[in-house]
Known about the structure:
By secondary structure, the protein is of the alpha/beta class. It has two domains: 3-138 and 174-239, Spore Coat Polysaccharide Biosynthesis Protein SpsA, Chain A, CATH 3.90.550; 252-313. The chain is built from eleven helices and twelve strands. Helix 1 (14-27) runs parallel beside helix 2 (46-56).
Amino acid sequence: MTDIVVVVLNYKTPGLAVVAAQSAATAMAGFGGAIVLVDNDSPDDSFHRMQQGVQAASWPEHLEVQVLQSGHNGGFGAGNNFGIRAGLEICPTAEFVYILNPDAQVETGSIAALVTYLKTHPKVAIAGSWIYGEDGADHCSAFRFPGLASEFEASVRMGPFTKALKHYVLPLHVPAASGPVGWIVGASMLARTNVLNDIGLFDETFFLYFEETDLCLRAQRVGHEVHFVRESRVCHIGSVSTGMGSWKRTPSYWYESRWYYYSKNYGRAYAIAATMLNVCGTSLWRLRRLLERKPNTDANRFVRDMIVHDARALFRPTPDASIRAIGTRPETTLQTSVD
Length: 339
């Protein structure tokens, strides 16, 4: 029997997290392993509510289900790393690690579809699902890697530029067939344990955003592939814990993650060029918006905040946060579990 470690990372959405874990348990029929619900130091009673929810629910006898407290909110990557390490201590024979967002529900058969795909495609290290919303509308499930051309195309928002740069447009939306992509969203992601042990887990320097992009890039740089799998479907409410859809002003950690991704993987000159192209594209878009009297859909002070952040970051050393092996989870006095 193939063993899988499932990690559901919660931040202030305990009810949804338990439902997500239950959907994973149903989809784990035929697989062994563990389901780990991690509370990422929520400033409410999420941990105890998840404990109560897990105790009240019924679970397959062949699966180990635990609720853990990370003890520190280090972000999406750090919280999931904590869950991965804990899960692999519980089930060291796990061949795969499956990351599922707390505001997502995996369809029956969707985990099996990802496992089958990886078993029949040995070069694929990471696979992601077809994501859709509560209303049935498709969410963007796969992307190209961000770069200079995509920074300009995404910010200028003009048809002629998009047509000319069509091979650099970031969103791939829902690809017509399962196959290779740049990176897939972390809402539903299956990865080979041995590959994670080789390339490392999520880079914990990222607090939120760009961490799964970085992980997929690292996998591909050493010869692995990342694929989108149409046969795996997951319903995702989206941005419930982060509130991204309602941002009035972009939080500093988004700018920090963006700068770190570019400077870490391509160098500081590249990061500066990416910012300059974004500013140029956004300025052209704003001019067009004024001329055509279009509404402003950008977050307040987006360009100004990005320039200020990146100017300051330019004079700070780039963090050295390489992760080469899974290792063991850090000890914490708040690390409590319940079967």
